[in-house]
Amino acid sequence: MKIFTGWRAALRIARRDAMRAKGRSALVVAMIAIPVLGVTALDVTYRSVELTPAEQLMTQMGSADALFSDPGTGPTEQSANGDNYSPVSDIPLPEDAPPLDLRTAFPQGARGISIQTVPASVTTRYGVADAEIFEFRTSDRMARGKLDLVDGAFPKGAGEMVATEPFLKLSGLHIGSPITLRGPEQKYTITGTVEQPENLKARALYADPGAVIAPWKATAAQDKKVLPPNAGPLTWLVKGKDGQGVSWPDVMAANKKGAVVVSRQVVLDPPPDSEVPFARKLGDNTTRSSSTELSAALVTVVSMAVLEIVLLAGPAFAVGARRSRRQLGLVGTCGGDRRHVRAVVLSGGLVLGGAGAVVGVVAGLVLTMVFRPLIENQAGQRFGSLALYPKELLAIAAIGLVTGLLAAFVPAVVASRQSVLESLTGRRGVRRSSRVLPIVGVCVLALGVVIAVLGGTSGSSGQVAAGSVIAELGLLGCIPVIVGLLGRLGRRFPLSPRMALRDAARNRGRTAPAVAAVMAAVAGSVAIATYVSSSAAGSDFDRTPMLSENSVVVSSLDAKGTEQLPLARAAVERNMTPTGRPAGITRVWAGSDCNVYYEEENGCGTLELVKPTGKGHSCPLNTKGAKELAERMSGEEHRSMMHSPECVDERFTLDTFSSGGSNIVVGDASLLKTYVKLDDPAAAKALDAGTPVLLNRAYAKDGQVTIKATHRYSDKDKKNRALHPGPARTTTDRLKVYVADAEYAGTPGLRMIMPAKSAQRIGLHTSVYGSVYNVSRPPTDAETQRTDAAIQQAGGDVYIQVGSGSDEQRQSTMLLVLTLFAGVVTLGAAAITTGLSKADAEADLTTLSAVGAPPRVRRTLSGFQCLVVALTGVLLGTAAGLVPAVALRLIDLHKAVEEMRLRPMESAYTPIVLPWATLGLLAVVVPLLAGLLAAVFTRSRLTLSRRVG
C-alpha cells in the first residue's frame, strides 16, 4: 500500500504542476495528441472504407435481392457468391443463338429493372465529349444504394437524364442544361445530379430504359448514315415476391436457364459446399487479399509517430523538471529518495500522456466525422458506415499513454540524480558531453550504410530496412556533437544568430531531440520522394509513346475526311495552343486504296523497310548469343544498347501514321522541324532534292536503304485491278538516303521521311493524311471538347491524336504531399523547440533586456533559434533519407539485371534521380519560413521581473 500511497502523492503533485504550467502542459498534450489523432483517423478511415459484405452488396445491387446477368454460355454452374461460374456443357452455343431473356429466369412473382450501357458522344458547354450512358430506372426504390440522388430530380420521361458530378464538372453543364446525343441527334435535359457510392469519380449519364438505345436504333434503321448503338449486355436487379428474397434453389433454377445470379440472401448466408455443384466440381476458389503489407505499413507509421513524440516531448519534460527543480529538491528534504523524484516526473508523463491520448482519440473521431466527405472524395467511394472498433481505439490510446511515460523516462532519471543542493539553489552544475557517444554513433552509421548497401546489392529488402534504421540511429548518436559544433560557427555572426547558435550548443539536451525529430520526418519524406522520382525516370525510359511529346496530329482515313482537313486544322489552331506552322503528312502504301479496303487483311499490300544483317544493323540482344552477352553487361551498358539504333525497333513499336507497319511517311522539311525536332539544313536540303531522310541509321548500308513492297489489289478496287491484273507482285528498291544522327532513331512512329517524287518513282500510292502541330502544353478537356465539336460539326471523319509526356502530374502531387508533410513536422518541431528555449532561457532574456538590448533582438533571436533547428534537421534528414532510397533502387537494379539476363530485351535501367524541387523546398524554403514565423509571433517587449533563485 505504501507504494500506491507514494504514487498517489506523485500523481497529485504532477497534476498540480501541470495545472500551474498550463502553457507547457498544453504543448506536451498537443505533441502526444496529434500523432494519436492521426493514427485514430487512419484506423477509423481504413475500417470505414473497407466495406462489409452487406455494404458491398448494397453498392452492387442497391436494395434489390439479386443481380441477374447472362454470360452467354447456356446452362451454368456457379459459386455461391456468383464470382465464378462455368458452363455445364463443353459445347459452346451457336453464334446465331438469340440472347437469353433473363426475365424467364426470375423466381415466380419477382419484379426486376434492367441496366444497359452504351458509349456515346454528347454535346457539352465547351463542345463534344465521350460519355457512358446507362439505361437504368434510377427513380425505382431498388436503385437506392447503387445510385443516389444528390440534387434535382430523377428523369420522368424519355427526354430527361441525370448525370454524375464529375461529368458535369468535365462538361461545364448543370441541372437544367440541354444535352444532345450526337449521331442520332437526340435531345435531352439534365434534371438532377446522382452519384455511384462505390465510384464517386464516374463520369456517366443515366436515362430511363427505352429513352436512348431504342430511338437510336430506329434512327439508324431509317438513316444509313447513322451508326447503330454499340450497347452492352442487359443485367437485371430483381426483387423477390413479398420480400422472400432469392434463395439458393432459385439461383440454381436460374443457372439451368443460363443466368448467373448474385443473391443477397445466398451471399450473406451461403449454403454448404455439398449443395453447391460448382464447389464440388472445381472448388470455390475465391481470392483473399493479404493484409500483411498493410499491417507492416501501419506498424511503421505508429513507430515513427512514437519516435517523434518521444524526441519532441522528452525535452519538454526535461525543461519542466528544471523549472520544478526547487519543488523536486523539497521532496528530497522531506525524506524522499531518488525513486520518489523519478515517480513525480514519471507521473507528469502519465498525467499528460493520458490527457493527450484521450484528447487525440476524441479529436480523431470528431475530425474524421467532420472531414468525412473530403476523405470519401479522395478515396473515390462512400463509407458504408463510420466503423469504430473499441479495442483498436483503446490500443491507440494506450500507445499515447505509454509514449508519455517513455518521453518522461530520461528526464526522470536525470532529475533523480541531481543533488538536493543543486535543486534548491537552481544551479545546473557542469556536465561534460559524452566522448564515447559520437564515436559509437559514427561507427553505427557506417555499419548501417554498409548493411543497407549490401542488402540492396543482394536484393534483401529486410536487410535494407535494418541497415537504414541502424544508420539513422547512428546519426542520432552524432547529433549532440553536431549541435555542439554549431556554437563555434557563431564567432563571426552578429549578436542574434551568435546567441542562437551558442544557445543550441549549450542546451543540447533540448536542441538535439528536436533536430532528431525533424531529421526523422524529413528522412522518410526524402527517401520516398527519391524513390518515386527514380522509379518515374525508369518508367519514362520503358514507356513507348504514341507521339512525340506536345505534338498534335490531325488525320483522316478516307477521301471525305481529307475534304474536312482544312476545317479541322482551323479548329486546332483556334482552340489549342499550336506554336509555329504545321507540317503536312502524306501516307504511302503499295496496293489497293487502303482508305476503302483496310478491313481486308493486307488489302492495301505491304511496305517494309528491310533491315540489313551484321554488325551495326542487327541488335546483339536479339541474336543467338544474347543471354551470354547479357551476363557480361552492366545495367548502364544494357541501357545504352537498348536505346541504340540497332535495338530500338526490336521492342514494341507503334505505327502512329498508319503506314502499313513500315513507319514511312511522305513529307517535306517542315516535318523534320515540327515533329522530329531535327534542325539540320543538310537534311532539309536532301528532302528538297528528292532524297529521303532516314532517322534510324541501322537500316542503311553504304548510304542506301532497301524497301520491299508487296503490291496486292482487291477485286473490289476495280480501277486499280484493271491496271494490275493477276496475283500480287513484290518489288525491291534501293534508295540513296540522308542518314540522321543516332539520337533520332527512337522518334515515335517514324523511321523515314520520303519525298513525294521518290514514292512516285518506285510505284507507291500516296494520299494526304493530315498535319502535325507543336503545342506549348497538352490541351485541356475544354480545349479538346471544343476541337471535337468543330470536327463533328464538319462531318466527324477527322481524328486527333495528342502526344503526352510522362505522368508528371501524379508524381508531382505525391512529391508535394510528402514535402508538405515533412514541412509541417519541421515547422512544428522548430516551433516547439523555440517555445522551450524561451521558457528555459527566460532569465537570460530578462538579463538581456535589463542591460539595454533593443526589443527587436528578442524577435530575431527566436527566429534564428527556429532556423538553426529546422535547417540542421533538414540537412541531416536529407542525408539519412538517401540511404534507404539508394539501397532500394539497388534492389530494383538487382531484380532488373536478373530479369534482363533471362530475357535480354527486358530493360535493366534503374536510375537514381534526386527530387531537387522537393530538396530545395525542404532545405531552403521551410527553414526560412520557420524562422520568419517564429520572429513574427514572438513578442518583442518583455515585462521585467525580479530574478529568482
UniProtKB/TrEMBL annotation:
Residues 75-87 have a biased composition (Polar residues). Residues 65-91 are annotated as: Disordered. Keywords: Cell membrane, Membrane, Transmembrane, Transmembrane helix. The chain crosses the membrane at residues 294-320, 341-374, 394-415, 436-457, 469-490, 511-532, 814-836, 866-891, 911-937. It is found in: Cell membrane. Residues 309-419 form the ABC3 transporter permease C-terminal domain. It is a multi-pass membrane protein. This is FtsX-like permease family protein. It comes from Streptomyces brevispora.
